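In this supplementary section we document a worked example of the pipeline. Step one takes a protein sequence of length 214 as its only input; no multiple sequence alignment statistics are reported here. Step two produces a three-dimensional model, which step three serialises into structure tokens for compact storage. The input and output of this example are shown verbatim.
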Amino acid sequence: MSMLRRFLVLLACLHLGPALAADADELIRPLQDEWAEIKYRQPASKQADLYKALADKARQLAQTHPAAAEILVWQGIIVSSEAGAKGGLSGLSLAKEARQLLEDSLKLDDKALDGSASTSLATLYAKVPGWPIGFGSDDKAEELFKKSLALNPAGIDPNFFYGEYLVDQGKISEGRRYLETALKAPARPGRELADQGRRSEIQALLDKIAGKKD
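The serialised model returned by step three reads:
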């Protein structure tokens, strides 16, 4: 983190104090809602451009609220989604940007949003190719997934992404357990579309591995 950003974070913390977390939740809600609309209701051919526009909104929000880890988490999630939608070398560059944003959020507050930064960062390490092409690392992914699950053991996202990771690793039975836990996760107020879309992804993966063994 740059010296300027450290100064801005300190200054913001002195003024905002304990009200920051509640305010940040309100600030990120439009980002969450628009992200869900793009991911679950827009055609794949349009998603990269839409994520890019949303990432710009998140970037502007982060610049005006430098102490809010929650905003950086969501900026990282959006940029990561844009990376996945683009693919290729441009996608890899965006994945690196997303990694930096998520790491910066962890420095501010590694427990923000129930460890969502760790979940998203773990998924990046799991999906990005390893050296010499990218920064992917199964060991780092495993470490971060365990951290996110420790913070949010019943959450839909950490259980889904860890379950998906395990399935990709050929650990079908273990992955299935996490996917089933994800399917039973409590609803997130105000995030009905995201929950509905995620449950559809979970069920699709469970159907895909039905009857399969390690």
